[in-house]
Write a structure and sequence with these properties.
The chain has about 950 residues and is an alpha/beta fold. It has five domains: about 180 residues, Rossmann fold; about 60 residues, no CATH class; about 240 residues, Rossmann fold; about 160 residues, PCRA, domain 4 (Orthogonal Bundle), CATH 1.10.486; about 160 residues, Lambda Exonuclease, Chain A, CATH 3.90.320. It contains 35 helices and 25 strands. The strands form six sheets. Strands 3, 18, 21, 22, 23, 24 and 25 form a seven-stranded mixed beta sheet that branches. Strand 19 and strand 20 form a beta hairpin. The longest helix is centred in the last third of the chain and has 25 residues. It starts with 9 loop residues before the first helix and ends in a 27-residue tail after the last helix.
Length: about 950
């Protein structure tokens, strides 16, 4: 798919092709604002208005940034080097990493989320001279509130010195409290810097500080970013908007897309007033209103429009006299129904009934076409449990709760058992792990014995012969488990947590069990937990299991439940259950907004425990009930998620003493308490299963991906779809060490006078001390590395190698996205050197050099050659595999015929992947496969 703006409507075309200056796009729900932004980005590149790296596109979630990049990728025919599409925080993180020293920060700073900030404050609580915010009975009660308060201050660009200055002016009953807050804020900021840490608010504000204090750096980025595009502008806070304004000068090519009626993130610091402020800051700005809706039926849009007008006069439409009434492109009348019941049980059952009824009427519908939206997670939980009871496939898209997922609970319990054998609840959980297949009746006999004898469950496992009635199978399994506990307890005192996890998963058979279940969500949760462990190891001075368990326990104490990343567009066909906040940006054929009663939706206004003093607030605060108006916007977002049908449900009885009142929003829509008859349960008429598992394939492919698929499609599925964690290997640790060492040396020292000792210092610093089987193996590899580096150093100096500069930076590990047959291939070239008549592309290899390269061996460098020509516009004259162990080079250069043949092969392989069932290809390759111990199809080669 290439750029074709002929299919856009008049207003969309006008936005995409706008030339110079500030633009405010007012884009209602379903009007294609993301389409406009991505098409504009592609338009600017294809029409030579700017290079990809000269356009900055910002949004608010990693998923939105990824989706935007994927859309742009499909529109660009040749590929690209670097697209600056990211969240605000990722953008600022990148800027600070590159320029941290210029404002006195270390480039290797750690980034703390709210839970990590809570931990830091608690660990240094004596540094905070608190009185008002330190109750005697619960001294840590207000830490979360303080962290949140400091975060909101940073959203407003309020610094500790501003707060301290303000505190000097306060008199009366608030004097002591405000002074305490100001000093606590200052202590917190000092603590962050002392620990080489930043929080998310710091990313924005230190970036602002960098630009204000270092005008030459600001000038460089202003010259680089010719155009700035912002999605969901209504969700920006004061500091983020300040960042945009300072970067956009002097051309002010600032393109912002927004909808004030969908501003629903005030609790995250979003400033509703930024849209109004934009019009004041840029009175000459072009204003384009998108009203053609490509999602919903007109009667649904009309109902939503009438409803949101109750927020006047605090709406852009009212203030600016623009018409925001959405016009449906979809022809036909949608369903809008209010269903009211006696009890919550009837309400939840009837939602399921209605879903089944609609599916029986329309055989094309699947569970994917339905979403159940709630105001709070508690209501979503109730519906999820009801789906479970009724065997309805569902996905509960909560942003928290990783630690309570069964697969993660099992792992945490095993970790706690290793840390403390006598924690009986953890031992019980481990005994109950399905992979161990220990009958529940035998577990009950064990726990009964331990209770009767006043022993821990673990002590009872040590004397199984005394427990009457246990089957021999259970005794054997438990003895095997005890051997594992002994082995892994020892391992946990010596090795990093990630290794303990991987050994447990494989040794216990748990990973094999999960693989047979073939539920992608289990591996999604497992990977997120594994990432959490790796982050702990990178930030901890003592990355062993005991410290990790302590951190998890502290997180639980802080109220953290474990963050979950999810993609609602991936996975099997299921009913999606989520809060309305989570549903922002999504669409479904049928939407149910449930539990619409007083105090559930809208919720009661809960002010922040610690509010920012009004005198310090920089936002323009509109008059009126801002909480109610935000709740109304949230309800409007829920209404506009649907294409064909909107069902609004409520009940009288939610378990309290009094019958619930209807939500005021239902009354505003004209509904009353007319009881709907609770239907008997309906079954699907279709004999065929309405759900089917499906896998979402990666959007980008690489040489390694294609190679894995050639080896075995099942291996590809394990690696790139399920993403099963695997044990590392010494050869990979060593290879990464060598690559990192050479990256640092060539990048930092090639233009300076150096000696071999400089290179060895980098080698020592970059050494990855993981996955070596024993001390002697590690020493052997280390010595090999030293010898290889000596050969490399002598060769590098003798040849007087000159590394190419791209955008002022050495072309090392140069990333690219290459288009072949409409598919995107990505990769990274180790090194590009300048030659008199072109460039040399170099790929480092550890291990033995090959005597002669076969066609398959050449493919990786051939891909790099094509990328160098098409993406970087370079003229490769030499492709070189550099074998570091022997200091040997094997050069070649691909012909036009070689390149075309490889392109055809890549297209053919990707097509195979797209239609594959991922059946195994057993053979000699099984002996080297990372998954041989969990794959039932692995062939043992003697």
């Amino acid at each position: 798919m290439e750029l074709d703006i002929s299919k856009l409507n008049k207003e969309q075309k006008q936005a995409v092709t706008f030339e110079q200056g500030p633009v405010l796009i007012v884009a209602g729900a379903g009007t294609g604002k993301t389409t406009v932004i991505t098409n504009r980005l592609a338009y600017l590149i294809q029409n030579k208005k700017a290079k990809p790296e000269e356009i900055l596109a910002l949004t608010f979630t990693n998923k939105a940034a990824q989706e935007m990049e994927e859309r742009v990728d499909r529109l660009l025919p040749y590929g690209y080097i670097d697209l600056w599409i990211s969240t605000f925080h990722s953008f600022c993180n990148r800027i600070l990493k590159e320029n941290a020293l210029d404002i006195g920060l270390s480039a290797d700073f750690k980034l703390l989320d709210e839970t990590a900030a809570w931990l830091l404050i608690k660990q240094n609580f004596d540094r905070f001279k608190l009185n008002y915010y330190k109750p005697r009975s619960t001294p840590f009660k207000f830490i979360n509130a303080l962290v949140s308060h400091f975060s909101r201050c940073k959203d407003q660009g309020i610094y500790p010195e501003d707060y301290l200055e303000y505190s000097k002016k306060v008199e009366g009953e608030d004097e002591e409290r405000i002074k305490e807050l100001a000093e606590a804020y200052q202590s917190y900021q000092k603590l962050l810097l002392e620990n080489n840490s930043l929080d998310f608010g710091d990313l924005i504000n230190y970036c602002l500080e960098l630009f204000r204090k270092r005008p030459l750096i600001l000038k460089r980025y202003r010259e680089q970013f010719k155009y700035i595009l912002v999605d969901e502008f209504q969700d920006t806070n004061w500091s983020q908007y300040e960042l945009l304004k300072i970067l956009a000068v002097p051309k002010n090519n600032l393109f912002v897309s927004s909808d004030d009626d969908q501003s629903i993130f005030k609790f995250r610091g979003a400033s509703f007033s930024n849209i109004l402020q934009f019009r004041k800051d840029y009175p000459e700005a072009k204003e384009i209103v998108l009203v053609d809706n490509y999602r919903s039926c007109q009667n649904i849009l009309d109902s939503a429009y009438k409803f949101i007008q109750l927020n006047n006069p605090n709406r852009l439409e009212y203030v600016s006299k623009v018409n925001k009434r959405l016009l449906a492109d979809y022809k036909g009348k949608g369903i809008i129904e209010h269903l009211h019941f006696n009890t919550i049980e009837q309400e939840l059952d009837s939602v399921i009934n209605k879903i089944i009824e609609l599916m029986n009427q329309d055989k094309e519908l699947t569970f994917n076409d339905f979403a159940v939206l709630t105001r709070i997670n508690e209501t979503a939980n109730a519906f999820a449990r009801n789906c479970e009871r009724n065997n309805i496939p569902y996905q509960f898209l909560a942003s928290k709760g990783l630690y309570s997922k069964p697969v993660i609970l099992d792992i945490i319990s095993y970790f706690k058992l290793l840390d403390n054998h006598y924690e009986s609840s953890s031992v019980y959980r481990v005994l109950s792990i399905p992979a161990l297949k220990i009958p529940h009746e035998d577990i009950a006999k064990i726990t009964h014995y331990s209770y009767k004898k006043f022993k821990s469950v673990y002590e009872t496992l040590q004397e199984l012969p005394l427990v009457e009635g246990l089957s021999q199978k259970s005794v054997n399994k438990i003895n095997n488990l005890l051997d594992l506990i002994k082995k892994h307890t020892q391992l946990s005192s010596e090795k990093n947590v990630s290794k303990v996890l991987l050994y447990f998963l494989e040794d216990s058979g748990y990973l094999k069990y999960l693989t047979k279940l073939d539920k992608k969500e289990n591996f999604d949760f497992l990977n997120q937990f594994f990432k959490k462990i790796k982050n702990f190891e990178e930030s901890s001075n003592d990355p062993l299991l005991k410290g990790f368990i302590e951190e998890v326990n502290l997180e639980l104490e802080a109220g953290e439940q474990g963050k979950i990343d999810f993609d609602p567009e991936q996975g099997p066909e299921v009913v999606r259950i989520m809060t309305v906040h989570t549903a922002k940006g999504l669409e479904f054929k049928y939407v149910f907004l449930i539990s619409l009663v007083d105090r559930k939706f809208p919720t009661t206004n809960r002010k922040e425990l610690i509010e920012i003093p009004e005198e310090l607030v920089k936002d323009i605060v509109p008059k009126g009930d801002m909480h109610l108006e935000e709740e109304r916007r949230l309800f409007y977002v829920g209404m506009t998620r649907t294409k064909k049908g909107l069902f609004l449900t409520s009940a009288d009885d939610y378990g309290g003493k009094q019958a619930k009142k209807l939500s005021r929003f239902l009354i505003e829509l004209g509904y009353n308490k007319e009881i709907t008859k609770a239907d008997k349960k309906i079954k699907l008429e279709s004999k065929e299963q309405k759900t089917k598992s499906r896998f979402i394939l990666p959007n980008y492919f690489s040489f390694t991906q294609l190679s894995n698929f050639r080896d075995c499609p099942l291996k590809y599925k394990f690696s790139y779809i399920l993403r099963i964690p695997t044990k590392g290997k010494a050869v990979f640790s060593f290879g990464r060490t060598m690559h990192n060492t050479l990256f640092d040396f060539v990048g930092q020292y090639s233009d300076k006078k150096t000696n071999f000792q400089d290179l060895l210092k980098i080698y020592k610093k970059r050494w990855i001390d993981e996955w070596y089987e024993n001390k002697s193996q590690k020493e052997e590899y280390y010595k090999t590395g030293q010898e290889s580096l000596k050969n490399f150093y002598d060769d590098f100096l003798e040849k007087k190698s000159s590394v190419l500069l791209i955008s002022g930076q050495p072309a090392l590990e140069q990333k690219f996205n290459l288009k072949i047959g409409g598919y995107t291939i990505n990769g990274a070239i180790d090194r590009i050197d300048k030659l008199d008549d072109g460039v040399e592309i170099i790929d480092y290899k550890t291990g033995s050099a090959k005597e002669k390269l076969k066609d398959d061996d050449k493919e990786q460098l051939l891909i790099y050659q094509i990328a160098a020509e098409q993406v970087f516009n370079l003229n490769p004259k030499k492709l070189t595999y550099y074998y570091l162990d022997q200091g040997k080079e094997i050069p070649f250069l691909g012909t036009e015929q070689d390149k075309e043949k490889l392109k055809e092969k890549i297209i053919s392989q990707i097509k195979e992947i797209k239609k594959s069932n991922f059946n195994p290809t057993s053979g000699w390759q099984c002996a080297w496969c990372d998954f041989k111990n969990i794959c039932e199809f692995a062939r043992t080669i003697k």
